[in-house]
């Protein structure tokens, strides 16, 4: 211990003396370790940390799919839920849930809050107990007994009387009286920590009927039974699926062609399925930056150790063992890396505040992101390991040097310099290669993002204000009341100054809601093996498509005459029109919505016939890159013929009208019609588009930042090695000049060496990029993982940066005075 204290005191004195080296090392490490700790905090919180439920690894999500119909993930149906509840051999418990919202309270003071409708078994699956009162019981899911509710801890805390006053309280939810039977424990959340209210779902006999088996309107989670595996659960469900498909009569072939199946995934992995690859890619990128920093510091340590050979040889001559000298070098490096690691932790903790700006606050489990003991231990361990490695390299280099010879060389360190030259050159090559890989990744993500920005969403988002209103069932109980309210809203909004067009829709693009349903065309003959399709289904008013500027390709938009008393009509998008009428005009043809499973094969007497009156452009509904959320086209029906309760508003402002001002005008207009109904989920349509890009924007911005840091570090490494070699070869350069060498030849000598190092590094980097192409391919859109333009651009940028780094040492070499070099 005394020896360690001596080494530390001596290291502090030496590093204080060599402030430039110490500060450079600490700042480099602070930046790189800070980035690493911040990204690892996100990765550990979102991907690696278990869900905050007991035995969370036993919780699974269950979802049905109809890929042939364009529905990869459809959720779960009520009949399927009851079947799976009975599978006690593989499931301990099964639950359904639905995201929703409620107005809590009454009158103008009522508050709209996010909520969740759940089966009573929901909390059993998650193994959650009540913080106050009780949880839901099986009887709460019986029709007529479902008017009970649970409050989240945070919501209950801000209610009158606080936490302890809520149980037994009567409260109005959507103007219906409910009893608060319990408060959930502090810290409990599922998917969204903002969920304030939980309400039990009660299913009628009709909803449990066999004809609803393929109406997947809920999400499902389950807890595996003791000893049961994921594979066993999947096999058990598929066996039951096969039984029901075989019993489905006319639907049998359609279900097979649609590829109907059920998927069972671990809940934790399923929640982050859309961000897992991107986060791992980011972590890999920041690790590469840290490696480059480590290489740079190793190079600096080599140079420093070489310049200290005289001092180290003197210590050895005075009795210090070689192992003691080596330990001193490692101690100095460890001290620097630990200080850099601590500074990096502080910087990483502070950087977590930037998550919202980058859009990472929207990712699953974002509310759980915090720096814990695992992150701190990992970061400090990383700093210690880095210190040992960086300290060991010059120590190993020192092992090959005869310290007694160094003393006899009267201060010249040419021998040691020649001995470490190849090591430093190899480190520079590694820096260039790693920087090349990082820059390729950044370039590909940037190009991909630019390609995504060029995607036409099918509408014009600028100057469009969107929001929602949800008329209460207690006050607007039927279609007539909803139709009247919607008409009054549209008349009032269209009269507002600055409104060019407005309309309502059951579904706003780039939002969380949506509906799809099977639709068929009269006379369309499906090919053998062809599946029915389930396109997006929207109910819209006249003015909606115009407000969104969805282009009309043929026919007409909806008109006020398309009301509840008029013949049923439909507008289809180009994609759906090409499916059913690939060589002809869709206008005037008839379509129908199946009223029963039998109608899918052959329309029965009760089907709803719709005449096609228009064809519009295809609209992106879930994002510029829809992925698994894509549907096979869309069809629109008049809102007056089936008025939605969840009303989406779209208003196009004239010219450059301010949307914030328009929002205030809309809220005042809505209050004039019904003071208790205000617009929520209010966004400019351009904001919705921007938010949909967050999963792509954050990795792109961070990778660019990592690439810039890598480029700077590699450039500094090249400059440092060449500058040091020029200083070590001053005598040689003087001799060359004395023998007739000119400035040009000296410049070429240094530049040639720099170009050679960069060239080898570029080749190594290209090999690395090829090896890692599959890792980044999944994160790209519209660009290949080895896009030649990106490779050429990155090569050019790195080459220019390297050339600039080479110029300084080369010019210094060319200015060497041969007389001074030979006599100095």
Give me the secondary-structure topology.
Elements: H1 2-17, H2 19-48, E1 59-66, E2 71-75, H3 78-85, E3 91-104, E4 111-118, H4 122-126, E5 132-133, E6 148-151, H5 153-157, E7 170-173, E8 176-183, E9 197-200, E10 219-224, H6 230-246, H7 251-257, E11 261-266, H8 267-271, H9 276-307, H10 309-317, H11 322-351, H12 355-358, H13 373-399, H14 403-408, H15 414-453, E12 464-469, H16 479-494, E13 499-505, E14 520-521, E15 536-540, H17 544-548, E16 552-555, E17 569-573, H18 574-580, E18 590-593, H19 597-601, E19 608-616, E20 634-638, E21 647-653, H20 659-673, E22 680-684, H21 685-692, H22 694-728, H23 730-738, H24 743-771, H25 773-777, H26 788-814, H27 818-823
Parallel strand pairs: 4-9, 6-8, 15-20, 17-19
Antiparallel strand pairs: 1-2, 1-10, 1-11, 3-4, 3-10, 5-8, 6-9, 7-8, 12-21, 12-22, 13-21, 14-18, 16-19, 17-20, 18-19
Task: Describe the oligomeric state of these chains in a short phrase.
Answer: single chain
Mean model confidence by pLDDT: 86
Distance between the termini: 45 Å
- The helix content, as a percent range, equals 40-55%
Structural class: alpha+beta
| Largest β-sheet summary | 11 strands, mixed
Number of domains: 4
| Unreliable spans | 410-416
Number-wise, the strands total 22
Basic shape: elongated
**What Rg is obtained from the alpha carbons, in whole angstroms?**
34 Å
Number of helices: 27
Question: What percentage of the residues does DSSP assign to strands (E)?
Answer: 15-25%
């Amino acid at each position: 211990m005394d020896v360690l204290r001596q080494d530390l005191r001596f290291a502090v004195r030496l590093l204080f003396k060599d402030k430039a080296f110490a500060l450079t090392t600490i700042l480099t490490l602070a930046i790189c370790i800070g980035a690493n700790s911040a990204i690892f905090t996100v990765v550990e919180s979102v991907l690696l940390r278990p869900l905050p439920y007991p035995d969370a690894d036993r919780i699974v999500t269950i979802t049905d799919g109809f890929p042939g119909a364009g529905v990869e993930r459809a959720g779960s149906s009520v009949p399927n839920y009851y079947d799976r509840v009975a599978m006690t051999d593989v499931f301990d418990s099964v639950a359904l849930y639905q995201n929703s919202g409620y107005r809590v309270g009454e009158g103008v003071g009522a508050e709209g809050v996010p909520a969740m409708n759940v089966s009573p078994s929901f909390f059993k699956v998650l193994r959650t107990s009540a913080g106050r009162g009780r949880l839901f019981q099986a009887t709460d899911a019986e029709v007529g007994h479902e008017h009970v509710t649970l409050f989240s801890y945070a919501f209950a805390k801000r209610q009158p009387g606080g936490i302890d006053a809520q149980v037994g309280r009567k409260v109005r939810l959507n103007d219906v009286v409910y009893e608060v039977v319990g408060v959930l424990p502090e810290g409990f959340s599922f998917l969204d920590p903002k969920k304030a209210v939980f309400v039990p779902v009660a299913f009628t006999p009709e909803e449990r009927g066999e004809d609803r088996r393929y109406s997947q309107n809920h999400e499902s989670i389950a807890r595996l039974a003791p000893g049961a595996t994921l594979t066993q659960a999947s096999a058990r469900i598929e066996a039951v699926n096969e039984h029901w498909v075989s019993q489905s009569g006319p639907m049998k072939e359609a279900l097979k062609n649609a590829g109907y199946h059920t998927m069972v995934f671990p809940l934790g992995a399923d929640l982050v399925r859309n961000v897992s690859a991107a986060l791992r890619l980011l972590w890999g990128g920041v690790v590469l930056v840290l490696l480059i920093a480590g290489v740079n510091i190793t190079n600096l340590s080599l140079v420093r150790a070489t310049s200290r050979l005289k001092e180290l040889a003197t210590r050895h001559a005075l009795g210090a063992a070689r192992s003691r000298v080596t330990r001193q070098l490692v101690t100095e490096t460890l001290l620097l890396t630990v200080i850099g690691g601590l500074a990096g932790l502080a910087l990483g903790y502070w950087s977590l505040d930037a998550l919202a700006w980058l859009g990472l606050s929207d990712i699953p489990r974002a509310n759980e992101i915090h720096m814990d003991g695992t992150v701190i231990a990992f970061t400090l361990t990383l700093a210690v390991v880095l210190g040992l490695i960086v300290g060991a390299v010059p120590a190993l280099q020192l092992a090959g040097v005869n310290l007694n010879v160094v003393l006899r060389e009267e201060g010249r360190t040419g021998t040691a310099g020649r001995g470490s030259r190849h090591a430093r050159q190899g480190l520079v090559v590694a820096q260039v290669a790693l920087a090349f890989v990082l820059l390729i990744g950044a370039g590909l993500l940037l190009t991909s993002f630019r390609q995504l920005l060029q995607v036409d969403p099918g509408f014009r988002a600028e100057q469009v204000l969107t929001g929602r209103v949800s008329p209460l069932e207690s006050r607007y109980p039927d279609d007539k009341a909803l139709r009247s309210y919607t008409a009054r809203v549209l008349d009032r909004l269209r009269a507002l100054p600055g409104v060019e067009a407005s309309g309502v829709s059951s579904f706003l693009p780039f939002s969380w809601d949506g509906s799809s349903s099977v639709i068929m065309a009269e006379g369309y003959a499906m090919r053998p093996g062809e599946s029915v399709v389930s396109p997006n289904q929207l109910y819209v008013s006249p003015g909606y498509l115009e407000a969104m500027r969805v282009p009309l390709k043929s026919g007409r938009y909806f008109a006020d005459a398309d009301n509840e008393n008029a013949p049923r009509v439909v507008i289809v998008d180009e994609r759906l029109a090409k499916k059913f009428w690939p060589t002809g005009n869709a206008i005037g043809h008839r379509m129908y919505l199946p009223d029963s499973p039998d109608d899918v094969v052959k329309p029965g007497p009760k089907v709803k016939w719709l005449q096609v009156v228009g064809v519009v452009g295809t609209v992106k509904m879930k994002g510029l890159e829809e992925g698994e959320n894509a549907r096979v086209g869309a069809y629109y029906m008049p809102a007056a013929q089936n008025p939605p309760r969840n009303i989406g508003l779209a208003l196009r402002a004239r010219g450059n009208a301010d949307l914030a001002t328009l929002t205030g005008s809309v809220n005042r207009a809505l209050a004039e019609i019904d003071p208790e109904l205000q617009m929520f989920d209010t966004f400019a349509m351009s904001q919705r588009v921007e938010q949909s890009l967050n999963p792509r924007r954050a990795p792109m911005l961070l990778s660019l930042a990592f690439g810039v840091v890598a480029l700077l570090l590699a450039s500094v490494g090249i400059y440092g090695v060449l500058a040091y070699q020029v200083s070590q070869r001053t005598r040689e350069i003087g001799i060359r000049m004395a023998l007739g060498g000119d400035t040009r030849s000296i410049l070429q000598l240094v530049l040639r060496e720099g170009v050679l190092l960069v060239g080898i590094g570029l080749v190594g980097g290209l090999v690395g990029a090829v090896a890692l192409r599959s890792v980044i391919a999944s994160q790209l859109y519209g660009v290949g993982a080895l896009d030649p333009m990106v490779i050429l651009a990155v090569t050019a940028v790195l080459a220019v940066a390297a050339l600039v780094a080479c110029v300084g040492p080369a010019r210094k070499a060319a200015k060497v005075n041969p007389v001074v070099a030979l006599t100095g």
